Amino acid sequence: MYRVGLTGGIASGKTAVADIFDSLGAGIVDTDRVAREVVAPGQPGLEAVRGEFGESVIRASGKLDRRAMRELVFADPQARRRLESLLHPLIRARTMEALELVRAPYAVAVVPLLVETGFGELVDRVAVVDCPRAVRLERLMARDGMDREQAESMLNAQVDRQTRLAAADDVIDNGGSRSSTRRQVQRLHVLYQRM
User: Fold this and answer.
1) Lesser CB count within 10 Å: N end or C end of the chain?
2) Residue 157: is its pLDDT beyond 90?
3) In the chain, what is the greatest distance between 2 CA atoms, to the nearest angstrom?
4) Do 113 and 120 contact (CB within 8 A), yes or no?
């Protein structure tokens, strides 16, 4: 199975691009979904987070308080590294299992932190969804209802745009119209089916 790692900065439009690949028949494994699964109630990931960070990041329902966790890790790089060391191995293992189950012409692993985590070594090709920082900033504030300072902090916590683009085999410019993005994905779909 040919594997494409799809990545991009926060609010670059990875989900929209993955949805287009999905509609064209690619097999999609989204690590954001996998990350939610590994911290579901009863899962070892949630217990590891509880043990490391305490009850302040657990809701009364027993679920992870994603907002509290996000605020904590984006304000404290050390806390972010601790969280990543707990969850990234679990996410990687479950993602690889899911990729083995894909039955499609090719698989797309949507991995927001592909460059930061070295996940690119596990795929045959890397596609980066790209758009200007200002566009990502506006999208992030609108999508998550956060102020500019919080949004800037989240953007700054990720690898810079140039580093991400340097890891790319293919770049999808998602700073323009949806139809332009769709045309780019369709061209890559044809290419990936031939691999």
Assistant:
1) C
2) no
3) 50
4) no
Pinpoint the alpha helices (H) of the chain: 14-23, 31-38, 44-53, 66-75, 77-101, 114-117, 133-144, 148-157, 161-166, 178-194
Q: Is the distance from CB of 33 to CB of 191 less than 8 angstroms? A: no
Element (H, E) at 170: strand 170-173
Domain boundaries along the sequence of the chain:
3-35+88-194
What average pLDDT does range 106-132 have in this prediction? Answer: 95
Length of the chain: 195
- Strands of the sheet with 170-173, listed across from one edge: 27-30, 107-110, 3-8, 125-130, 170-173
Residue 188 CB coordination number (10 Å): 24
Q: How deeply is 129 buried, as exposed, middle or buried, from its count of CB atoms within 10 A (0-12, 13-18, 19+)? A: buried
Q: Tens digits of per-residue pLDDT, 23-38?
A: 999 999 999 999 999 9
- pTM of structure: 0.90
Is residue 71 pLDDT above 90, yes or no? no
15 CB-contact burial (10 Å; exposed 0-12 / middle 13-18 / buried 19+): middle
Topology classification of domain 3-35+88-194: Rossmann fold (3.40.50)
β 3-8/107-110 pair status: parallel
In sign, the C-alpha dihedral spanning 123, 127, 132, 138 is negative
